[in-house]
Amino acid sequence: MMSSGFVVFRAGVALVLMCSFYRSTEDPLPELSPQQYFSTLQPGKASLAYFCQVGSLSNSVFLEELKEAIRPLQDYGISVSKVNCVEEEASRYCGKEEGVMKAYLFRGHILLREFPTDTLFDVNAIVAHVLFTLLFNEVKYVTTLEDLHSIENSLKGKANMIFSYVEAIGTPEHRAVMEAAFVYGTSYQFALTTEIALLENIGSENTGRAHLYFLHCELASDLTESCRTTRMEQPLTTLNIHVFIKTMKAPLVMEVAEDPQQVSIIHLQLGLPLVFIISQQATYEADRRTAEWVAWRLLGKAGVLLLSRDSVDVDIPQHANVAFRRAEKEAPVEFLVLNDVDLIVSHVKSNMYIEETQEDEDGDEEGPDLAIQDDEVAETVYRDRKRPLPLELTVELTQETFNSTVTTSDSLVLFYATWHAVSMAFLQSYIDVAIKLKGTSTILLTRINCADWSDVCAKQNVTAFPAVKLYKEGESPVSYEGMLGTKDLLKFVQLNRISCPVNIASIQEAEKYLRGELYKDLFSFPSVSVLGLFSPAMASAEEHFREAGKRLRGSIITGVYSEDDVWILSNKYAAPLPAMLLARPREGGIESVPLATAPVQEMVRILANAPLEAFPEITVETLPAYLRLQRPLLMLFSDGSIDPQYRNAALALVRQKQLEPFTPCWLNFNYI
Known about the structure:
It is built from 21 helices and 29 strands. The protein is α/β, with parallel strands linked by helices. Keywords: Signal. InterPro entries: Thioredoxin-like_sf, Thioredoxin_domain, TXNDC16, TXNDC16_2nd, TXNDC16_3rd, TXNDC16_N.
């Protein structure tokens, strides 16, 4: 885990980000006597306490869930304690019978609410109930359409509202809404309901799952008109709600006059595509109106920009009126001729990757029996019931089958726990990878539920969930350390399908390798390819390079060329042997790095840093890699894409080695 402190120097545009590192430790559940507990309470600070009789073995399941809730509640400044009721310290919060033990939420010494433990049936319910109580003013609970309209009318011309429907209090969806309200409650008015009738009254076609709506009341200048509404189509998770709200905060339409391939706005950072309405001076007003119509139709799904044909130095086809760019970094810009708004919207929706919730076609699926709240609730009742995953695409492992599977086949293993929310969310990405690789991969995708087979997971040194490891016969398992998403995990699998390192047989093959052409079926273009150059007599240096490449298997492509004519590549790229070439096909550059007597560990460091850019953009995905350098970040802030003038100036300083103590980088502050 990392903590970061930010220091901004107003005299320039640079920011030095100093990072300190610390080990995360498991948070124990404090056990106190009533007197000790009440002495710890501080004015204004929230605290959740479970009062129980000393030596009681009841509610052990609840205590396990309470321990899981310690870390997320601490993130919101809420302490958690277990209070042992002892005879010598009488307290009115200690029940006389074990069956009536309760949890209590305090702010300072003021009791806010008491909870019977059967309402706090899992970690989601605990976090949701506590935040719901603390956010009483930020989240209005409504039961009728009149209540909702009353809040809406009070906000018109002033502020926007986020309205959500959840099936029950304490569900994962309820927790996600509460966590969003904790972050955004000062910016938006939140309203919540569990009444299906209210959802039907506002015109929802599907009342079988949770919903969230953004009401643009701030734009409603006429108090007699309803607030414009945008529905979130993704499942209600904390991350999805955050992404949705971020898109609502972004400008409806942005005007740009630069190469659309270089445009960088918040939608790309959030994984959403961009639509460019191509404009010219003579038709500007009409083009602007078209862009706004398209933007409203695609709000929350794509970013819409007005691209000036007159001022951009790009070869735009004469008849093209729309450009489309997918969210993937390598994706090219597509120029189109689409003559009405419906065609534009249809094209975007059919070409973007959205994990859509599967709807029931017959609508007769029975809902859960909410009266059944036993110890299986967290695993079954409130799981994403409307979205069955094709788990059959992966092999479920047990204690009996684990060793025989991973020792007889190349196996990717997901270690997860059904009670762990992040595990269950990542399981969707894991299944998505299985879908994309169906029928093409030589690697077997498997999974093991550590809630059932904890001994197996412990023997594999799995101490946190989710975890992914690749097992190959005769080799040590490789741990996946990338982002918890489909794209990065798929890249990890594809890289592991390639020999490590690749044995290059000829000069021609080496050139194709450096141009990124050997593995077109696996990647559009690898970000960087590394080729080690050795003469046949340099066996020791070559072995060190091979070992370094194996240690980084799954994160970078490495190749080796050690034939008699290696001097041809050595002379061409001014690389005295032994050396390695770092090729970035998309940028068209090849850099040589002398290896000389570099030990294995130094080669590992060089290879690990090979994909890093000299002047990178800092994003959620790239930040961890640059923090691992353990150097301060010297950061340039930009309102949109980086100006080429600034980029060239920064790269010049890098080449002159004037910034060596730092990692120079830039940040689009529209993403902050």
